[in-house]
Amino acid sequence: MGRSELTTPKTAEEKTGNWVEQSKDDAQLAIDAYQTGGEIIITAMIAGVKPEDLDISITREMVIIKGKREEPNSSDKESYIYRELYWGSFSRTIVLPVEVESDESEAVEKHGLLIIRMPKINKDKSKTLKIKSL
């Protein structure tokens, strides 16, 4: 038997042919993404980000989250013992496994946690049209 090889998932930029430009200075936003029977849900920690410094774009197949976390003007940089928090611009592009209704999607923030809910497109749904007489 042959050895199984583990491959890393492709980034959104690799999957989309790099059509979304992402600054090399941007940090990548950590997310959790999961799906239920009717929706896809993305969560991300955005504590310290003002709503006006956050931009979320949703298409049927992709979500782009961009933002900026401003560093507070606290003490002198040389007085830090540990410096692990990220300050500055961040972004994340997520390719979705199924199409979603972008117009019906919603984003809320609760205690620094961003929650994006996107209903899946129901491809089995049909509508009967009535014919109008002119």
What is the compact description of this entry?
This protein has 134 residues and is mainly beta.
List keywords for this structure.
mainly beta; Immunoglobulin-like; 134 residues; four-stranded antiparallel β-sheet; four-stranded mixed β-sheet; 8 strands
- How many discrete structural domains? 1
In CATH, the topology is named Immunoglobulin-like
Succession of helices and strands: HEEEEEEEE
Low-confidence stretches: 1-22
Q: Nearest-angstrom radius of gyration?
A: 20 Å
Could you tell me the mean pLDDT?
A: 81
Number of helices: 1
Q: Structural class, please?
A: mainly beta
Overall geometry comes to elongated
Structure, explained:
The chain is mainly beta and about 130 residues long. It has one domain: Immunoglobulin-like (Sandwich). Helices cover about 5% and strands about 35% of the residues. It has one helix and eight strands. Strands 1-6-5-4 form a four-stranded mixed β-sheet. Strands 2-3-8-7 form a four-stranded antiparallel β-sheet, with no helix packed on it. The N terminus is likely disordered.
What's the helix and strand layout?
Elements: H1 12-15, E1 27-28, E2 32-35, E3 39-45, E4 54-58, E5 62-69, E6 88-95, E7 106-110, E8 113-119
Parallel strand pairs: 1-6
Antiparallel strand pairs: 2-3, 3-8, 4-5, 5-6, 7-8
